Amino acid sequence: MAKKKIGLIGGGQIGGNLALLAVQKNLGDVVLYDIPAAEGLVKGKALDINQLSAVDGYDSRVLGTTDWKDVAGSDVIIITAGVPRKPGMSREDLLDVNLKIMRDVAGNIKQHAPNAFVINVANPLDAMVFALQKISGLPANMVVGMAGVLDTSRFKCFVAEALNTSIRDVEALVLGGHGDDMVPLVRHSTVGGVPLTQLLPKDKLDAIIDRTRKGGAELVALYKTGSAYFAPAASSIAMAESFLLDRKRVLPAAALLKGEYGISDYFFGVPVQIGAGGVEKIHTVELNEAEKAEIAKSFDSVKKTVESVKL
Ligand code: LMR
């Protein structure tokens, strides 16, 4: 089987971690792209990672480049280009600056890699993935936003910590937009098959929900000059791997909805099956009235941001 090609747009902290994870998992050869001002950064990271290949014994290679032609023909593209927020900022504060960057990125993807499965990580995530799909004109099933995997992973991590139990047995899901109104589905969460609501009292669950919702901001406050990078990279790679290896995993992702959850023509975080066909299925979780109200609130926030996107 021919080696796959993974285009990483943005050579910052997440981009570097993505490149490392992609080659360590032997997913294919990696092209790490950034603008000419960051040439040293992408070439340096590529060289550094390639020099590690003998230690780890993997055969995938990384190319650092500032030329979109090198990205051409990528099977998967992960976009991390854009500006991260600083303490005190909301993700929405990044809309104008990151939209400008997304216009250029989406146009280049359309020109150079129109058949790629594209995963967006840039914020504000749901609005950026909306802009990406509209500008690139790529089929909706080939464009997703990463955040559901990240938010769900944070939720599971905090649950495992609270119970001092293995993360392996935590089953949980976060739906909705990638913002402070995201919806951790406590009622649907289990640990080793035992309902989470039986294992933790309401005040502890509420604290976990709150921490999950503010998970990105907690890291922004700690890092001070940027936002999370390890977990976003791992989350994106899980999605890319499911596509490249046709794993057909069901992962929460921002996908274009066509009436599911009562939402049409917006990207919103829901469980989707990702395989060789991109987003192959969108799953609808049965929700009670309270959960529906939370979804509506989360969607209102996403809609408000998307409505201010000038394409
Ligand atoms: C995250 O959740 O870590 C990212 O969306 C980055 C951020 O600004 O919070």
TrEMBL record:
Key words of the record: NAD, Oxidoreductase, Tricarboxylic acid cycle
Superkingdom field: Bacteria
SUPFAM superfamilies: LDH C-terminal domain-like, NAD(P)-binding Rossmann-fold domains
Binding site for substrate: R85, R91, N123, R154
Record's catalysed reaction(s): (S)-malate + NAD(+) = oxaloacetate + NADH + H(+)
Catalytic residues, chain numbering: H178 (proton acceptor)
GO molecular function: L-lactate dehydrogenase (NAD+) activity; L-malate dehydrogenase (NAD+) activity
Database matches in InterPro entries: L-lactate/malate_DH (IPR001557), Lactate/malate_DH_C (IPR022383), Lactate/malate_DH_N (IPR001236), Lactate_DH/Glyco_Ohase_4_C (IPR015955), Malate_DH_type3 (IPR011275), NAD(P)-bd_dom_sf (IPR036291)
Entry annotated with the keyword Oxidoreductase: yes
Domain Lactate/malate dehydrogenase N-terminal: from-to ranges: 5-145
Domain called Lactate/malate dehydrogenase C-terminal: residue spans: 150-309
List of residues binding NAD(+): G10, G11, G12, Q13, I14, G15, D34, N98, V121, A122, N123
Gene3D superfamilies, sorted: Lactate dehydrogenase/glycoside hydrolase, family 4, C-terminal (3.90.110.10), NAD(P)-binding Rossmann-like Domain (3.40.50.720)
GO biological process: lactate metabolic process; tricarboxylic acid cycle
Top EC class, one word: oxidoreductase
E.C. number: 1.1.1.37
Family designation: Belongs to the LDH/MDH superfamily. MDH type 3 family.
Function: Catalyzes the reversible oxidation of malate to oxaloacetate.
Protein name in the entry: Malate dehydrogenase
